[in-house]
Amino acid sequence: MTLSWTYTVSVRSLCEFTAKRGSLDRRFTPSATSLEGQAGQLAVIARRSPGYETELPLEGRFGQLRVRGRADGYEADVNRLEEIKTIRGPIELIPENRRALHWAQLETYGALIAADRGLAELELALVYVDADTQQETVLRDTLSAAALQAAFEGRCLAFEAWAAQEAGHRSARDEGLAALPFPLGELRPGQRLLAEAVYRAAAQGRCLLAQAPTGIGKTLGTLYPLLRAMPTQQLDKIGYLTCKGTGRITALEALHQLREATPGRALRVLTFVAKEQACEHPDKACHGEACPLAHDFYDKLPDARAEAVQTGWLDPAAQRRIALSHGVCPYYLGQELLRWADIVVGDVHHAFDPHGQLYGLANAQGWKLALLVDEAHNLVDRARDMYSTSLALGQVREAVAAAPVSLRGPLRQLAGELLRLGRDQPADYQPLTELPDALADALQRANVALADYVQNHPLEVGPMLEFYFHVLGLQRLLDRLDTHSLCDLQRSAVRKAPSPEPQNLSLLDAATDEPGEVTLAIRNIVPGHFLKERFESCSSVTLFSATLGTADYQRHLLGLPDDTVWIDVPAPFPPEHLVVRIADRLSTRYEHRQASLNSLVDLLATQFAEHPGNYLAFFSSFDYLEQAASRLAQRHPEVPQWSQARAMGDAARRAFLDRFVPDGRGIGFAVLGGAFAEGVDLPGTRLIGAFIATLGLPPVSSVQEQVRERLDALFGTDHGYADLVPGLQKVVQAAGRVLRSVDDRGWVWLLDRRYRRPEVRALLPAWWQV
User: Fold this and answer.
1) How far is residue 240's CA from residue 358's CA, in Å, rounded to a whole number?
2) From its phi and psi, is residue 296 left (phi > 0), alpha (psi between -120 and 50) or beta?
3) Which of 169, 471, 577, 663 has its CA 20 to 30 A from that of 317?
4) Pfam families in the record, alphabetically (predicted)?
5) What is the mean pLDDT of residues 543-561?
6) Apex 215 CA angle, 204 and 722, nearest 5
7) If you average pLDDT over residues 436-448, what whole number do you get?
8) Could you tell me which of 698, 697, 764, 757 has the C-alpha nearest to residue 732?
9) How many CB atoms within 10 Å of residue 759?
């Protein structure tokens, strides 16, 4: 009887499933970056004969399995197949089960090429290349074609039952999604427009920027069409990614509805859990000798994995329950389940960070991946942070104090060069077109010394390992420094150097003046340089938010493809439900604040008296907030008020929001861009209005001026990318707290005459009747 299914699996996936055994071992072993891996491969290839074949596409069948992959290199004149791995440090640091995996991959490629070319036997060479020296360590073996084929068939037999199950799941999933009804019956008008745009983008393999106001149901309006497109576009996986944790709660609620509506609930939903939240033994190292949940992890994994995929709904609680019932680590079980989930819910860093797990695995496995990015107005700033870093003199000094004797010399030299540069620069802020040679050399020497130390002390964790990661990250960003990022040095006020420290750690003579702090920074300005290839590698990406600003702002700064689609979904609210007014006799500029403060708080009190209810008042800083709150209390003590504090824990934030009761009365003072300016839902009469006493522009500073100049140089002038566009995004986000449903009514007061300017009005929602 002919079986009805076929399952395609990569050589890497087949071997990872069948060859990994023993304990989990996450002790630090220095790893090479992808760029270093490419350099290592090129170095090996350059030493081979002219007929050396690289990146050989190979494929084989076993029953209903189709196995395929690309072998690194084959040298026909000596009949040798090579698997090349770029590493840091001696191969003895590579865990035994990882080396076994490398051999399994090489043997599988060997079986495929022997069958393809009719070879009787084959020499196999596992080539480890040192990332720094590019020296090779080669492990060799010669096997017959029959032995290679037997090993290949054994791996396929071990995987075949799982493959049949997965093929059945994929078939049931696609059949169910093709007939998936919308769980709420009818899509709302704006929601339908959004859903149609998402479906078209998925069908055309394009990126979509969707600006859609609060209240239309963006979560279901994006998830539903993409799930419907999953079968027709043969998507392997969907990632629903958010910039803030609150968005994941809404996504999981929507996915639960959609999964319940899917026939047979044939949809696996996985929530990414942060390691610090999932770890059961934070006091233990991640290896089998220290942690019981790492011991024999790969031997226990098959049963845990089988139960997980049958469960299907893999939120953090389910992952923990399944993992602990099988005695394995919940966090690393979740990492394994990423391979078998249909939808993954998590933070944006999983796709856009340099070490993002979702992007890295999708790229390695060749998945067709589609992304939904919620709260996408935050992605520019989040991505900038991912590709920025800094190193302060104080950090280096702390590392010197904690370092073993062997590291103190290079770390002192690094501290000394930082200090010298800070002392000698002409201003407290100094942009650098490149790193001075002396500092660059000191940083390189510190990196080499730290790498040697952690390689030779792999069981030690703590300050040196953390500092090594930090310095290595700085070095990698410096290596890729270009017009997309700024390099600068900042120093604080000059002070007298301290008296000589213990162990002779003082860097300058005690009588010498030195800066209080010196900080070297790499500030990414245009993350699109790093994100461009990620957007191109995805099947489709939809970025959606109520406040995306302008299409060009997102395209230029995020590196989106030229054919990215833009849609601005009309608001579901009748315009008359929101009264938007400009206080065009007020100026909230810094130099005018004291003079306008009385008028500002009088306006707040007048609006409150005419339309009593709960309001939010947003200010550009805590200082300004405190001045306004104090002046309102003096002039209008009858108006109830409460304020956001400079440092608020969860309980304090909840207490602030709890003051907004239905039909309540008072004004809550908050900072624009802070915890209460977005992601806050106060429907009905819990909030009837907002005052915004700022345009959200960043404060004037040397750094901000450099950012503006860099963006002007890249994209021309008069675009507002450095200040106006992101500032008005914050304003519209804050105003969006007022209307949360089609039945809500409210007021928004824009407290500055600059809101009358055409370039400002152009960035406000078109449906606002100002």
Assistant:
1) 11
2) left
3) 169
4) DEAD_2, Helicase_C_2
5) 95
6) 70
7) 95
8) 764
9) 11
Q: 614 is written with which tokens?
A: 């709960």
Q: List the structure tokens of 425.
A: 């620069």
How many CB atoms within 10 Å of residue 449? Answer: 21
Amino acid at 713: A
- Name the pLDDT band for 547 (thresholds 50, 70, 90): very high
User: How far is Cα 744 from Cα 738, in angstroms, rounded to an integer?
Assistant: 8
Pairwise CA distance, residues 684 & 588, whole Å: 30
Contact 149, 200 (CB under 8 A): no
Instruction: Answer whether residue 534 shows pLDDT above 90.
Output: yes
Q: For the residues of 410-435, what is the DSSP string, one character each?
A: HHHHHHHHHHHHHHHSSSSEEE-SS-
Residue 61: predicted pLDDT: 95
pLDDT average, residue stretch 580-584: 96
β-strand 121-130 against 136-144: which pairing, if any?
A: antiparallel
- Burial class for 50, CB neighbours closer than 10 Å (0-12, 13-18, 19+): exposed
Hunting for tokens 């629903």 — which residue is that? 240
Per the CB < 8 A criterion, the answer to whether 214 and 736 are in contact is: yes
Are 690 and 678 within 8 A, CB to CB? no
Tokens of 585: 């006799």
Q: Cβ contacts of residue 147 below 8 Å, gap of 6+?
A: none
Nearest 5°: the CA angle 549, 555, 558 is 100
- Burial class (CB within 10 angstroms; exposed 0-12, middle 13-18, buried 19+) of 555: middle
How would DSSP label each residue in 169-187? HHHHHHHHHHTPPPTTSS-
Separation of CA 491 from chain center:
30
Q: Which residues contact 35 (CB under 8 A, 6 or more apart)?
A: none
Nearest to 332 by CA among 285, 299, 298, 289: 298
Sign of the CA dihedral 48, 50, 53, 55?
positive
Question: What are the tens digits of pLDDT across the range 270-309?
Answer: 999 999 999 999 988 888 889 999 999 999 999 999 999 9
Q: Which domains does the chain have, with CATH numbers?
A: 7-162 (3.90.320.10), 179-380+537-568 (3.40.50.300), 388-526 (1.10.275), 575-761 (3.40.50.300)
DSSP result, 233-276: TT-SEEEEEESSTHHHHHHHHHHHHHHHHSGGG---EEE---HH
Angle between the N-to-C axes of helices 551-558 and 528-537, in degrees from 0 to 180, rounded to the nearest 10: 90
Beta bridge partners of 561: none
Neighbour tally for 610: CB within 10 Å: 8
The H or E element spanning position 363 is helix 357-365
**Hey, what's the torsion of the CAs at 281, 282, 284, 285, to 10 degrees?**
120
- Do the bridges between strand 494-496 and strand 513-515 make them parallel or antiparallel, or are there none, so unpaired? antiparallel
Rounded CA-CA distance 64/337 in Å is 23
* Backbone angles phi and psi of 323, in degrees to 5: -60, -50
Q: What is the DSSP letter of 510?
A: T
Q: How big is the CA angle at 280 (ends 276 and 285), to the nearest 5 degrees?
A: 80
Question: Tell me, what DSSP letter sits at residue 525?
Answer: S
Q: Which two tokens stand for residue 279?
A: 């770890």
Whole-number Å distance between alpha carbons of 13 and 339: 9
- Report the distance separating Cα 676 and Cα 678, nearest Å: 6
Q: pTM for the whole thing?
A: 0.91
Q: Is 499 left (phi over 0), alpha (psi -120 to 50) or beta?
A: beta
Structure tokens, 378:
């935050």
Decide: 568 and 574 in contact? Cβ < 8 Å: no
Work out whether the CA dihedral 273, 279, 285, 291 comes out positive or negative: negative
CB of 333 closer than 8 Å to CB of 322: yes
pLDDT at 507 over 70: no
**What sign for the dihedral angle of Cα 193, 198, 204, 206?**
positive
